[in-house]
Please model this.
Amino acid sequence: MIRDLKLAVRAGGGFGLALAFFLIVVVLVPFGVGPEREVLARIAPGILWVAALLAALLSLDRMFALDHEDGSLTLLATGPLPLEAVALGKALVHWATTGLPLVVIAPLLGILLSLPGPAVLPLLVSLAVGTPALSMIGAFGAALTVGLKRGGLLMSLLVLPLYVPTLVFGAEVVRRGGEGLGVAVPLAMLGGITLGAFAVLPFATAAALRVNLR
Amino acid sequence: MSARLGVAGLAVERGGLAVLEGVSFGVPAGRALILRGPNGVGKTTLLRVLAGLQKPLAGRVEAAPDDIAYASHADGIKATLSVAENLQFWAGIHGTGVPDGVYDLFDLADLRGREAGTLSSGQKRRLGLARLAVIDRPIWLLDEPTISLDRQSVTRFAEFLTQHHLARGGIAVIATHIDLGIEAETLDLTAFRARRAGADGSDGAFL
Model:
């Protein structure tokens, strides 16, 4: 079932957009800030995480809006697959098409921002653990605003505050990693947020979809 | 396939206003019911309530939710998938396969590999209706199924409906303005129009 959803979403386009956005932001930062290595190294964890977050946000409003426009969403709602599963599938697909490529490319871009060597592994791990939460929280936001015209702006306002904990702990993991401190605590918090989001939000997302389909 | 659809004392609302009330009917297996009434009388809303997409104000719907296949104005077609991929997607969701004959039944055989986005609106409609044959559910709720179909396709669809669905004990509730040429009961929803009791009260309050 999830494979079918993946097919639908992939064909819906938008793949690569988040990646390109992430690339551009990270490449532009050294131009804006200047090439001092110390400054860049200090802000690199934050920049990488903020860019990943905005890249994830970029493709969120398409998640349910396309299915809503062409009527697939109502047909899915009357289908045998529970909407909770649809929501979970959509979030996982969103992560696979935006979060996963970011995880892969982030270490390379870290070099561009002269991210200290010991921070690369924490960056990789923190993005891998944290970005699924961005997709799941985003699915909830997208479901809340699915019926609205120009819902994207409202969705960003709803979703961004919910992204803050992920951002704080994610960037903290990278910073501590770069300074050679222990990363277990912020990483555990980050993992907790992700697991919590996946435990609760599929149900909230499905409930929001049902309300909006009425 | 054996199923039944019953509705008792149903009242439905649209945009916060009651549009229909006291709707009661029953459709036995193998029969079709055609809903008629002027635009805005509540045909689509009634079908949405039957499909379980929105709750009735009053009354109840007797039908197993898993028996119902709903076909709305929108066909639920992904423009970037091919005709065959679209049908396979729905077959996958419903855990069925795509029967071989479907493409011929809906005159889609030549279009199998075409991207659905390049189809004409009538061809899209045929693809949307073909979904019904793929998902194999006994109760069909069809909202204007013949929109943008030419006369030949309408006849084809009516034939398909009677021979492949109703003859196998299926049920169909169809909202339409045209004569499909099938044997069916007709229900005119004008008779069930809700009296706007609330409107008088609020008028008084505002004046």
About this structure: Chain A has one domain: 2-213. Residues 183 and 212 of chain A are 41 Å apart (CA to CA). Chain A touches chain B at residues 1, 3-4, 7-8, 11-13, 69-72, 74-81, 213-214 (CB under 8 Å). Residues 83-112 of chain A form the longest helix (30 residues).
